[in-house]
């Protein structure tokens, strides 16, 4: 600390009182609206503790991202499918020279030695290891240690500031106000024992818990309304396809520790539903210390892998196991890990960047991040999410743009849309100012992120109605969970959905005020499509249980897209990448089963209602694989 102050004094000879000067002209850059859900502030962070500070710099050309994505993803575009190379993506969006030098000058003027400051290989971040005391001075903030009931700890602050002239060059700075949100915080709430009748009951904050009761029933196509199996899904979605190009294809499933699969559970599932797969395992990619198998929390991982593996057999599945058992991880961590091609990119011969490789800085805080350890799979399904209200806008926007870049590269990113209808996790809603609230003031809907990002495919949930068969129309899911859906408070309406969403709002105006949701007709609506999310038979902890949620819907849709990619690859074509512009187009409408019944209640309302055409409950509907495949095969 003393050393840094001395350097500072030398660098700023002409300037009186450096510390005051730095704080003058500081402007608040990011501030949390509420305490991080589930985390409790414990104590001030140790001033000497070293943290890896990362400054996410303002990128260039982001205003063009949506149009460029349409160029490669809209079925009418002459350049459909002409995905970008990672080098082109990294170069095109890299921060300007003046941004990079402004940040460098700010840091060196603040007493940080220039040789400690590193530009990330993807050019988006400036990285430097500093003490907590230095970070507090740079950002005019206080760091605290926060604790989570799971035992996890995280360092963070409530808000931070940067000098005004720097503000325009910065998107976000980490670690600061952003918290790792594990979505299946209480995974047991997705489970229930066989046959309790929850139909029509509002979701309670606690949700059902399993008591480990075993399902004793013969599964068959005749009782898919009570037990969903891979066979039911194949029948529901006209989905039968055996892949032929598995070596060239890829399908990734992201899991956040402490969620992890159990190998005996996979085998138990295979034994009953796909016996030739006994012994098959996903290919583990460990990100930031992620290990598998783990213990205790197996529901989400078992569900995702059992269904994805059987529905795409024999396609190998890549398991992106993210986070260690101590700290866990957030969405940024898996994004960093698939940055592979960005990280190996040498970035030309700019001498400014030669300092990047190798990293010789001794000592320090934690181990290096898992950056660029795996090529982005062509399809990635993530059954986790967080409330928009718990993310700052700069954080959500920067991350959303990364999904857009993955789309440019040809990857389809699917996120489950949430299980609480128009409410947030645990049924939480907001006051009219957009802050989490309780009771009568909790009137505002709480959209789920990243599903609300315009550059991901948001997947909602449907159900087979009780007593109905796989040949009858499904409804929006109203058993145990309600399909997450609504309108973003952060993202504006992308062009690809403008016709569908505008039509919905005009023909079926929701009976809610602007205080309840962004009803301007300019906000991003979600989900984009849906698939069954009720009564999944899943082998968990040695027995079969029923599981509910958009968590189930996302890997099922991902499996279908992966098989479509297989057929395209077999014809010498590329993967489909970002599918939203295609699935909203009129040509593709016949390839979806429009869902026209059911609602997604929450926040003391019935929520939105499924209607003809797109709706903020089930999107454009559920896929009919047999019809979808030739449409995608017909594209270049
Ligand atoms: C910070 O320290 C860690 C741990 O020693 C090291 O792996 C990392 O590369 C350092 N980062 C920078 C920017 O020097
Ligand atoms: C799984 O298969 C075994 C062996 O065929 C059978 O005895 C058992 O009933 C099946 N389990 C379920 C839950 O259907
Ligand atoms: C509604 O969404 C649009 C598009 O994102 C935005 O411009 C507008 O400010 C939002 N309205 C309110 C009241 O937040
Ligand atoms: C199922 O897909 C096939 C093409 O594989 C198509 O001919 C058929 O019409 C589809 N069935 C239904 C019920 O949509």
Automatic annotation (TrEMBL):
It is found in: Secreted, Extracellular space. One of its GO terms (molecular function) is tripeptidyl-peptidase activity. This is tripeptidyl-peptidase II. Its EC number is 3.4.14.10. Its cofactor is Ca(2+). Secreted tripeptidyl-peptidase which degrades proteins at acidic pHs and is involved in virulence. PANTHER family: PROTEASE S8 TRIPEPTIDYL PEPTIDASE I CLN2 (PTHR14218), SERINE PROTEASE AORO, PUTATIVE (AFU_ORTHOLOGUE AFUA_6G10250)-RELATED (PTHR14218:SF19). Keywords: Calcium, Glycoprotein, Hydrolase, Metal-binding, Protease, Secreted, Serine protease, Signal, Virulence, Zymogen. Binds 1 Ca(2+) ion per subunit. Its main location: secreted. GO terms for biological process: proteolysis. Residues 227-635 form the Peptidase S53 domain. It catalyses: Release of an N-terminal tripeptide from a polypeptide. Residues 1-16 form the signal peptide. The active site is at 300 (charge relay system), 304 (charge relay system), 551 (charge relay system). InterPro entries: Peptidase_S8/S53_dom_sf (IPR036852), S53_propep (IPR015366), Sedolisin_dom (IPR030400), Tripeptidyl-peptidase_I (IPR050819). Ca(2+) binds at residues 594-595, 613, 615. Residues 184-209 are annotated as: Disordered. GO terms for cellular component: extracellular region. It comes from Lactarius akahatsu.
